[in-house]
């Protein structure tokens, strides 16, 4: 699998954290960004509308079987797991919740690590559970870049702290550092 | 590179299951299938997929257990109520014009979708003239569908879904409660043929007025979706209807031209003329 991708997981407090990061990415950002955010099940993913209005990047709900493209933010639809296929396309699934969540961050991160190997960056943001910890470790183990919002300054520190504990390669970072590193990595 | 070895083992296991048992999972969407296989390895207590494969080949009783991991059995009655509402309000008026009807529920799992349709058709006064086909590849699921017994814990959600779908009766008219279980009325399956049928390896078996195949294609890769949708095209009567799951579409299949969007928001299609 050639090409690269960024995966982001957010839970409680996630809308605000994502509002700091996603709008800061420029329209010519060449790498696809996939996001799992835990929100109550709703038919249309309200986050898509919210962020489409705020972002320079194209923002959409991920569709089953579509090929990932740069310059685009893909949100997991509510009540479906979002996965990446080995060939770099999107797969959705309504199988059982993982970590009591569907979509689950671990499912996105683990399948993306499988598809992209070292050409993947993963970011765990604020949240009150442990979703994303296993997934971030999988990204680190595959040689990808593992980033975590600093638990001390995060809205809710539990999820970032769990990710740091599970993934030795990850460092706690501020929003500015995360944005800076993502931008540098995307053009490197 | 343990990962690469695991991918080889998965490839070999799927090949073994195909050659020996003729269940063909080789072209299922791989990311989800891999997760479920690794889960099966752990749950069934094997150190490697290869060890699991050896037992699957030599011990027939392992196959149904493996199938429960390879297939996804998550379902509910009147799942996505707006889909059933659209069938009721937009599709049923067309179906009323026929003297008799055939409806195929492809990938019926434990029967939730079948009973939903059976109730809907009864409410709309079409049950007596309708023959349902309920098919799946998982024998345990088919047996559960034929039994029509669900846990009472689920009934609250099923009832809520039924109401939201525009239900004209009360769901409790159709089951009796018994030791924590809801036993659905036998008469709902009077005109149902339950059958082992694979969208991957089996052929057309009748001419249908409505095919409901929800949350099955999502587990296939594009090639397999093409095969299954081709099968639906060839199975539909003139101007027959096809309903898919809420996150499925014909957009990425070769056969999109053979269908027209009928209720786009609910993924209900109609067979195009010609
Ligand atoms: C997630 S369930 C969908 C149940 C129901 N249709 C719904 O939407 O709630 C998927 C079902 O498809 C069945 N299935 C998987 N592969 C199949 C195939 N090749 N042919 C027919 N059914 C298949 C599985 O055994 C499972 O029962």
From TrEMBL, chain A:
Reactions performed catalytically: [protein]-L-glutamate 5-O-methyl ester + H2O = L-glutamyl-[protein] + methanol + H(+)
One CC-aspect GO term: cytoplasm
EC primary class: hydrolase
CDD domains with a match to the protein in the record: CheB
Top-level taxon in the UniProt lineage: Bacteria
Organism this protein belongs to: Blastomonas natatoria
Protein name: protein-glutamate methylesterase
Coiled-coil segments on the chain, per record: none
Record-annotated active site: 11, 38, 131
Limits of the CheB-type methylesterase domain: 1-188
Listed InterPro entries: CheB_C, Sig_transdc_resp-reg_Me-estase
GO aspect biological process, one term: chemotaxis
Molecular function GO labels: phosphorelay response regulator activity; protein-glutamate methylesterase activity
UniProt key word Hydrolase: yes
TrEMBL record, chain B:
GO function terms (MF aspect): S-adenosylmethionine-dependent methyltransferase activity
SUPFAM superfamilies to which the protein is assigned, alphabetical: Chemotaxis receptor methyltransferase CheR, N-terminal domain (SSF47757), S-adenosyl-L-methionine-dependent methyltransferases (SSF53335)
Record keyword rRNA-binding present: no
CheR-type methyltransferase domain boundaries: 1-260
A biological-process GO annotation: methylation
Any single Pfam family the record assigns to this protein: CheR
Entry keyword annotation includes Methyltransferase: yes
Keywords: Methyltransferase, Transferase
Protein name per its UniProtKB record: Chemotaxis protein methyltransferase CheR
Organism listed in the record: Blastomonas natatoria
């Amino acid at each position: 699998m050639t090409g690269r991708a960024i995966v982001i997981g957010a839970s409680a407090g996630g809308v605000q954290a994502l509002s700091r990061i996603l709008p800061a990415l420029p329209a010519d950002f060449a790498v696809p960004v996939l996001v799992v955010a835990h929100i109550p099940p709703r038919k249309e993913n309200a986050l898509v509308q919210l962020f489409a209005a705020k972002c320079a990047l194209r923002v959409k709900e991920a569709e089953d079987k579509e090929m990932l493209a740069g310059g685009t933010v893909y949100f997991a639809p509510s009540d479906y797991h979002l996965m990446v296929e080995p060939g770099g396309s999107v797969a959705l699934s309504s199988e059982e919740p993982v970590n009591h969540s569907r979509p689950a961050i671990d499912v996105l991160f683990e399948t993306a690590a499988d598809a992209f190997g070292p050409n993947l960056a993963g970011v765990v943001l604020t949240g009150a559970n442990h979703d994303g910890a296993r997934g971030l470790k999988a990204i680190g183990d595959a040689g990808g870049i593992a980033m975590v919002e600093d638990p001390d300054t995060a809205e809710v520190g539990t999820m970032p702290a769990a990710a740091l504990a599970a993934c030795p390669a990850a460092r706690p970072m501020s929003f500015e550092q995360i944005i800076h590193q993502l931008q540098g990595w995307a053009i490197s | 590179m343990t990962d690469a070895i695991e991918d080889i083992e998965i490839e070999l296991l799927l090949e073994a299951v195909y050659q020996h048992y003729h269940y063909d999972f080789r072209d299922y969407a791989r990311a989800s299938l891999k997760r479920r296989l690794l889960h099966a390895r752990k749950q069934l207590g094997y150190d490697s997929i290869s060890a699991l494969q050896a037992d699957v080949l030599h011990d027939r009783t392992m196959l149904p257990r493996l199938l429960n991991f390879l297939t996804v059995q998550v379902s509910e009655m009147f799942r996505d109520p707006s889909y059933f509402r659209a069938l009721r309000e937009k599709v049923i008026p067309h179906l009323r014009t026929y003297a008799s009807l055939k409806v195929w529920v492809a990938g019926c799992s434990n029967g939730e979708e079948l009973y939903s349709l059976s109730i809907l058709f009864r409410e709309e006064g079409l049950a007596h003239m309708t023959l349902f086909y309920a098919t799946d590849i998982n024998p345990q699921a088919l047996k559960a569908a034929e039994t029509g017994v669900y846990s009472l814990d689920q009934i609250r959600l099923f009832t809520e879904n039924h109401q939201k779908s525009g239900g004209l009766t009360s769901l409790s008219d159709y089951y009796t409660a018994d030791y924590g279980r809801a036993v659905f009325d036998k008469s709902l399956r009077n005109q149902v043929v339950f059958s082992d049928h694979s969208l991957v390896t089996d052929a057309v078996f009748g001419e249908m007025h409505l095919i409901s195949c929800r949350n099955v294609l999502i587990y296939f890769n594009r090639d397999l979706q093409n095969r299954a949708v081709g099968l639906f095209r060839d199975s539909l009567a003139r101007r027959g209807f096809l309903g898919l799951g809420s996150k499925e579409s014909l957009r990425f299949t070769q056969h999109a031209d053979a269908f027209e969007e009928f209720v786009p928001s609910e993924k209900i299609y109609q067979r195009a003329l010609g």
